Amino acid sequence: MNTNAAVGTFATKNISNNITVTVSGLTIGGTDAGNYSLTQPTTTASIFGEMTPPTVTLNSPNGGQTFTVGTATVITWSATDNLTPAASLVLTLQYSTNGGTTWASVAGFDGINDGAFSWTVPATASTTCLVRLTATDAAGNLGADTSDAVFTIAAVSVPPTPVTTINLTAGWNLVSLTQIPTDPTIGSVLTGISANVISVWYYDASTSTWLSYDGPAGAPDTLTTMTDGKGYWVNMAMSATLTITGSDLPAPPATPPTYNVVVGWNLIGFKSTASMTASEYLAGITGGYTRIYRFDGTNYIIVRTTDNLTPGAGYWIAVTGAGTIYP
Known about the structure:
Layout: E1 7-10, E2 16-24, E3 42-47, E4 55-60, E5 66-68, E6 72-80, E7 90-96, E8 104-105, E9 116-120, E10 126-136, E11 142-146, E12 151-154, E13 163-168, E14 171-176, E15 180-181, H1 186-189, E16 197-204, E17 209-213, E18 231-236, E19 240-247, E20 259-261, E21 264-269, E22 276-277, H2 278-281, E23 289-295, E24 300-302, E25 308-309, E26 314-319, E27 323-325
Parallel strand pairs: 5-12
Antiparallel strand pairs: 1-2, 2-3, 4-6, 6-9, 7-8, 7-10, 10-11, 10-12, 13-19, 14-18, 15-19, 16-17, 16-18, 20-27, 21-26, 22-25, 23-24, 23-26
């Protein structure tokens, strides 16, 4: 019998047992072949294949949590397969911010099946977020798991910009800024009261020079900014309230402010929204000054080290050794 040209045709291509196979192409050879006839046989066979998908369990986030934009959270899972080694599974990690209508890839995911990935929460605030992990084995079978319930991505909470006020009277006022101004240009700082400002003066002790501002109608100004840590003489035509918008400290990673003083009279500010004693505020130059004055609108008043400094007030200080104030 010659089987070289034999062909077996399966009744179906699907995986199953006892599938009918029709054989064709069998022939009888040899000198007596003409004495015989051959009926092509049928038989049965089974088709086997790998159809089991990977087992995937998403552990976190699994619903109900709240994560803030830009923070890091850890996505955890397990993914195994009956034949393909866990390390050989191909993983896809995705998230949705609309309850699963659309999906996006988790940025930076390396595909390593180690059960955890540190996820930087994306900048899309939503209350209907999900995460989905999909694993593909060597046979192309897919297994997936999705968060059991939605979780929330919350926008970064921006604290309100601090605002403080200083009451100015007609005539001379010795003042300082309680905060770091958002915009230190003098026109911006004086917004709302500029029509009542006659002039502003600052004494630069490092050069023994007076700088002045007379407003748009005055002579060219040598004082163009008003900043924290300095004292200013403000001459008012009538009473008004100065509103200061700014911050207590600069945004990270900038260092907190410092204010240098030199030997002699210095015109300093008190950068604080709360009172504290002179000795506490001036701890950085303890023993390096001999006299402090404030102005009450009419007279100079001596300030003792145990007296409280007043937010919004400016001060003359007689310094005997150059140093730095750390507010």
